[in-house]
Amino acid sequence: MDPLLDAPHRTPPPHSTDPPSLAAEAGQALHGGDRNVPIGLCAAWSSHAAELAVPLGAALERWEETPATDRLVAEGYLHRLLPGVFLPPDMLRSAVDRALALGCALGAHLQAQHVIAGPSAAWVVIGGAPPEQVELLSSAHRGDLAGVVLRHSRLLPQDIETVGGAPVTSPVRTALDLLRFAPSWIAEPALRHLVESGHARLAEIRHRLHAMHRYPGVLGARERLEQMLDPQLVDSGAPAPTGLPSAVTR
Fold this sequence. Notes:
AbiEi antitoxin C-terminal domain-containing protein; 10 strands; alpha+beta
């Protein structure tokens, strides 16, 4: 299917006659007549993230959710980040792109304490199609955003890595959260990718799980780890290292 034919209805950006506050709230500012340039996206995380996020914000596409948009996603023309918010796949080639794309999609809802976690953190590292929902951890509060799972958690410093100025749970912490909370059909392939790519070691995952007491989902996570993976692989700790860093950028 030609993506330009039978295209879904695009949600228009703020009009040039709208007050500046409306444009800013939508993550856009008027610049040079009718041209709209995103500003401030991901600034809640850091100025570095905001700077790197500019081209991603400019490429964000907002469409109504219709069978036509479903076809565009299914045929690989677009990736859905949040309901009604999309990016072309060629804008999501690196871990930095993927992390900042989530921040751009959240727009004004993004908070400084939001940490990309769970299946979303695995997607930042692994790539492919984005998960159906964005998952975030926050030390401050829970929230209710469409297409977002927001969990309350106290994170240790070693549980957070910075990717392009965006906070993302470390691969080991990501693995723990996948085992504790994600359904098996999501957790198993993501965990295998994290281990086989050298981003996380099974020995460390097991050690962290067995050191956790009275945490929700820990007992089930221990059982799932043993069931999901080849016993020989689990006993050895991990496959041969690949030389890949655990964080793409600091």
